[in-house]
Amino acid sequence: QVGELSQQLDTESKRCRQLKAQNQDLQEELCTLHGKCEKLEKSKCQLKEELAKLQHHIETNMVDHGHIEQYKREVEERAGQEIRQKLQEVNLFLQAWEAFQDTLERFRTSHHDSEINLLKDKIRYLEGELDWMQSAQEDRACQEISTQAQVERYKELYLREVKAGRWLAKELER
């Protein structure tokens, strides 16, 4: 029995050493977890403080959602009014532009007609001038022919006089 007890004691002592080693490992792990727990507590406190700050920030800086919706509706309404006003201005401008184009087209048409009438009058005037110039040219041609005939006649008369003068000079010398 003593051998058995001695063996049992050895087993129990091995087991006790293992449990002591395991206990020491667990205590080290417990210390590590304790450190982690303290860190987590600090982190938790910091997060609580940050949460409190954020809540305070939200309370002080956030506008009531109803106010935001109302402001949004007002902005949309004003934008719609401005768009309608701008569209109305554009429509008025387009109508004025169309009226201007019509007036311009009428002016161009009347100006074109008056230009045509002026050109027709100018053509008639120039045709009259051409007729007058042609008749003047014909008159000048006739006058030139007449003048040429007179020059020929006076030339002939001069030559006769020169001959007569020579003849008389010869007669005088004789």
From TrEMBL:
Keyword presence, Ion transport: no
DUF3496 domain mapped to chain residues: 122-174
Keywords recorded for this protein, A-Z: Coiled coil
Coiled coil ranges: 2-29
Descriptive protein name: ANR26 protein
Native source species: Neodrepanis coruscans
